[in-house]
Amino acid sequence: LFLSNGRQPDKKTQLYTITLSGGEAQLVADMENGVSNPAWSPDGKTMLFTSKVWTEEKTESDVKRIKRIRYKFNNVGFFEGRRTHLFTVKPGGKPKQITKGEHDAADPRWGPHGKTISYITNMEQDQDTSRVNDIYRIQAKGGDPEKITDSTYNIANHSYSPDGETMAFIGNHRPEELAVDNDLYKLPVKGREPELLTGGFNRSLLIGIGSDLRVSTPGDGPVWSSDGEHIYFNTADTPYCNLYRINIGNKKLETIVSGKTVDGFSVADNGVIAYNAMTSLEPCELYLLDGGEKKLSDFNKKLLTQLNLSTPEHFTFKNRLGRTVDGWMMKPSDWKKGAPYPCVLEMHGGPRGVYGEGIFQEFQLLCAEGWAVIYTNPRGSAGYEEEYTQGVMRHYGEVDYEDFMGFTDEALKQYPWIDEKRLGLTGGSYGGYTTNWIITQTDRFKAAVTCRSICNWVSKFGVSDMGFMQPESISGAKTYWGDELIEQMKHSPIYYVDRVKTPCLLIHSEQDYRCPMAEGEQWFTALKLN
Questions:
Q1: What are the phi and psi torsion angles at 315 (to 5°)?
Q2: pLDDT of 437
Q3: Of 34, 11, 74, residue with least CA distance to 511
Q4: Which of 5, 106, 2 is nearest to 51 (CA)?
Q5: Which residues contact 297 (CB under 8 A, 6 or more apart)?
Q6: Mapped to the 3 state alphabet, what secondary structure does 58-77 carry?
Q7: Helix H segments across 87-198?
Q8: Residue 494 and residue 511: Cα distance in Å, rounded?
Q9: Beta strands in 413-490 (DSSP E)
């Protein structure tokens, strides 16, 4: 069972099967809007998947009729009256739609006996502006769905215990708060309150270490052991993304794999674990944990032996609050003692991104061109305790700026060969925002490259796919109008654009719906006029 987007003329992602011995792949479902989230039923006779369907009358007109506030999504495009719903299909049969209505079905899971399907959605009137998600269950043949949870959780994904009596889900119980950690819960299928399992962990689940050479997505959800006594998950505890196992009885948490960034994993019935993992010097490879760790693949060995990669050196500094902040420095590939070198400050997105044991092609390219690279996890970064991650909330451009400047000072102190007269900075998304912000506050950097950036929080709220959510995260103001508009603008780089003296290159994608093109255009125009 697999998905492919290269076998049909329209290039839509469709569902196929192929025998394990090889042969020609068979098209199973050819859906107008493509296929996602495929899964075999427990008896191996039926396939479950999701696809977008028209819930409003389809029109061939080029005119887009928009009524919802959530009408587009980054990497997806405009919804145009389409919703994501569940389908089942048997090989050789026709797909059958299982769910219907004005909501989107996500994270579909077969019930252990194949008679039911559970999924995550929000069916309430305020679904477009709410952060609440519930688990629903529906008969595999269709019918009316049953709500399992009580509309007080933000649930990301879920899974069943082997006996089907218990669900595990990852989410949080404070959906209206800012930058809240995700935890692991267990929930009896027949009712009762969810039980928190990771209350003492103090790290958010579903967090991966940053990389621009990723081959799988971190945090696929809770994975049960075959005896139903343990649950596995992976998440970041900087600088690594570790694989963990928790005993659901006594809540004892064990670190199963550390020292690298685990991106995806699978647990066999006998407890053997296959996983892929990367380091800061090697893209993902496949590993097996069976008593000891065994590396199964070495796809990148031939290439890596031909490259002179720069090894990140970890160092720290203490910020204004006395908090130790992590940072790294990468030397130019041709580094020689006593020679001065230019340096680039790289800044991650988010703000809940996180640097650590992840490889960056961009950083290595800069080092190969004779630059040093420095990067840090300022307040607001993920992979730490919740208080640290929440530190930037209501203080965009303030505490993060403090930490970036303190970090740069420390880098110059520890590595005096860095030429402070040849400092550059760059970042994308929230890192593009901090790039723009920093050059309105200081002239210490001689050049800036701002990627898919943000310059105006007031305009972004109306043009971004998620810009209208939780406005108080920026400055503490709860709206973007009246007197509060000025508060939001004071955290926007464009408010201070007349101070900019640093040359700035802008790189922006036309169809970026998260950090829309309008942000780059405004910043470009404002810089040109100043």
A1: -150, 165
A2: 99
A3: 74
A4: 106
A5: 285, 286
A6: CCCCCCCCCCCCCCEECCCE
A7: none
A8: 22
A9: 418-428, 447-451
- Using alpha carbons, list the distances in angstroms from residue 530 to 66, 271, 425: 37, 63, 20
User: b/e map of 20-44 (b: 16 or more CB within 10 Å)?
Assistant: eeeeeeeebbebeebbbbbbebeee
For the chain, list the domains and their CATH numbers. 1-151 (2.120.10.30), 307-529 (3.40.50.1820)
Question: Residue written as tokens 């810009």?
Answer: 467
Give dist(CA 267, CA 159) in Å, integer.
14
CA 169 – CA 167 distance, rounded (Å): 7
Residue 409 in 3-state DSSP?
A: helix
- pLDDT reported for residue 58: 82
**Distance from C-alpha of 17 to C-alpha of 2, rounded to nearest angstrom:** 6
Instruction: List the Cα angle 297/277/429 in 5-degree steps.
Output: 130
- Rounded-to-10 torsion of CA 513, 461, 434, 130: -90
| Nearby residues of 6 by Cβ (< 8 Å), 6 or more positions away | none
pLDDT score for 47: 96
- Give dist(CA 332, CA 368) in Å, integer: 6
Distance CA 84, CA 47 (A): 16
Nearest residue to 114 (alpha-carbon basis) of 47, 165, 161, 50: 47
Q: Where are the alpha helices (DSSP H) in 130-281?
A: none
Render pLDDT for 161-198 as a digit per residue (tens, 0 to 9).
Answer: 999 999 999 999 999 999 999 999 999 998 779 999 99
| Neighbour order of strands in the sheet with 26-29 | 2-4, 14-17, 26-29
pLDDT value of residue 61: 85
Q: How far apart are CA 14 and CA 459, in angstroms?
A: 37
Neighbours of 181 (CB within 10 A): 20
Return the exposure string of 494-514: e unless at least 16 CB atoms fall within 10 Å of the residue's CB, then b: bbbbeebebebebebeeebbb
28 φ, ψ (degrees, to nearest 5): -105, -40
Give me the residues of the chain with pLDDT under 70, please: 7-8, 216-220
**Numbers of helices and strands, H then E, in the chain:** 9, 32
Q: What percent of the chain is helix, strand and coil (3-state, nearest 5)?
A: 15, 35, 50
